[in-house]
Amino acid sequence: MTAPKPTAARRGGRWIDEWNPEDERFWQEKGERIARRNLIFSILSEHIGFSIWTLWSVLVLFMGPEYGIDPAGKFFLVSMATLVGAVVRVPYTFAVARFGGRNWTVVSASMLLLPTAAAWLVMEPGTSYTTFMLVAVLTGVGGGNFASSMTNINAFFPLRKKGWALGLNAGGGNIGVPVVQLAGLLVIATAGDGEPRVLLAAYAPLILVAAFLAWRYMDNLAPVKNDTGAAKESVRDAHTWIMSFLYIGTFGSFIGYSFAFGLVLQNQFDRTPLQAASITFIGPLLGSLIRPIGGYWADKYGGARITLFTFAGMAGATGVVVAASMAESLPVFLVGFISLFVLSGLGNGSTYKMIPGIYRAKAQALGLTGEEAAAYGRRLSGAAIGLIGAVGALGGLGINLAFRQSFLSTGSGTGAFTSFLAFYAVCFVITWAVYLRRSAISSRAVTDETTAEGSAEQQPAYAGV
Predict the structure, then answer these.
(1) Number of alpha helices (DSSP H) and beta strands (DSSP E) in the chain
(2) Vertex 45, ends 379 and 251: CA angle to 5°?
(3) pLDDT tens digit string along 432-444?
(4) 29 with 245: CB under 8 angstroms?
(5) What pTM, to 2 d.p., does this model score?
(6) Comparing 162 with 48, which gets the higher pLDDT?
(7) What CATH superfamily classification does 15-458 receive?
């Protein structure tokens, strides 16, 4: 999605017409300073976006018996927010090149006022379930902020810095989840569980501040363009769908568990709203804080290796959760569940680092070198990043629907966790087979083209991505 060549100046805002972060001199003289400034305010906007996206994970804790909504209905409510947040990531990805990263950040941040105001109007007993559902759908726009923010920041940083930069950007945004949950805890502890509007009123000015700061301090990159050819090529590329599947396992788990944690505690362990809220934020907080570390370790040791470790750990932690659920042990359950958050956050950083590395390796497999290979990698990774983020977020929908069905069928989340355990095992096998197995990488997974001189066995291993 990025093209390094200069373009004609564009009017109407802070536009940078030439941008080449791979040039060490350019990066040292001015590129790094500009990129870091944009990263800071991108994180702020994305942070608020995540808070609004996951708003209903907190609002359902305020919905006592007087609301007349059973646990299955609440899981379905948060599922709709997850679904819309995943779907809008695709158009949000392309909006960066169409309108400019800075301009779109201002627009997307301002749009968060709509679901916040709508929730303030309807959040009271007697409101119909359909109305709650429509308002929950509106909060999905907050999920789109992640895709546009990551696409934008991906263009600002050189390949050698992407793991840390993207991890920091995403981690800072992800922290919006525990922050809104902590804010909800504060409201419940002070004003009571009948005052959800206090929480909503607190976020409205924060949204305005984020939009203003983006308008004042961020930049648009003129060289960033929507490349429909790259988009079509990334859709046809097997790696896009393999990484989408793996991202379901990491980010899908993180966002799905973030929405569901409080409801699981209330319905499986009979926690009160205050008791649930006092625990719910811990997992998302730790998972968010460790995401940049996942990116950093991926830069240092290879994203595929860290991702493999992540899925092994998630399978083990899920086994602990299943055992704790069957034994009805809340302390052991919390250890396993919070470990899942930490490991999913680690994997979020490592999987996103893998994306540019995979397409750089593919460029080399095609015989490209130097700047030509770097440009190819930027072009394909920029096109794929939004789609991978969108598909990965759908994993959150799957998790909440699985919980809904499990509680409907058995009154417990144990069945859902068992299915998650099997899924992580599949993710582990795929990561090893495609990106770490050194004997032979199938040419179909690397490229649809096979040269007369290059067989499948001569394709490079992807252990370093």
Answers:
(1) 22, 2
(2) 60
(3) 999 988 643 443 3
(4) no
(5) 0.82
(6) 48
(7) MFS general substrate transporter like domains (1.20.1250.20)
User: Residues 117, 174: contact at Cβ < 8 Å?
Assistant: no
**Closest among 271, 253, 182, 180 to 400, alpha carbons compared:** 253
Percent of residues, the chain, with pLDDT higher than 70: 91
Give tens-digit pLDDT for 40-81.
999 999 999 999 999 999 999 999 899 999 888 999 998 999
Residues 38, 215, 389, 6: is their CA dihedral positive or negative? negative
Cα distance between residue 289 and residue 167, in whole Å: 10
Helices (H), 248-329: 253-268, 273-280, 282-301, 303-327
The dihedral through the CA atoms of 336, 83, 358, 360 has a sign that is negative
Nearest-angstrom CA–CA distance, 349 and 341: 13
Q: Can you say whether residue 64 is alpha, beta or left, with left for phi > 0 and alpha for psi between -120 and 50 degrees?
A: beta
Contact between residue 345 and residue 288 where contact means Cβ atoms under 8 Å apart = yes
Give yes or no for a contact between 152 and 19, defined as CB atoms under 8 angstroms apart.
no
Strand, helix or coil for residue 459: coil
Q: What are the distances in angstroms from CA 171 to CA 34, 110, 167, 268, 367?
A: 20, 21, 6, 29, 35
253: its two tokens: 């788990």
Task: Map out the domains of the chain as residue ranges.
Answer: 15-458
Tokens of residue 230, six digits: 């790259």
Amino acid at 211: A
CB atoms within 10 A of CB 86: 26
What are the pLDDT digits (tens) for 315-339? 999 999 999 999 999 999 999 999 9
DSSP code at position 28: I
* Contact present, 48 and 207 (Cβ < 8 Å): yes
How far from chain centre, in Å, is Cα 371?
A: 29
Residue 387 in this model has a pLDDT that exceeds 60: yes
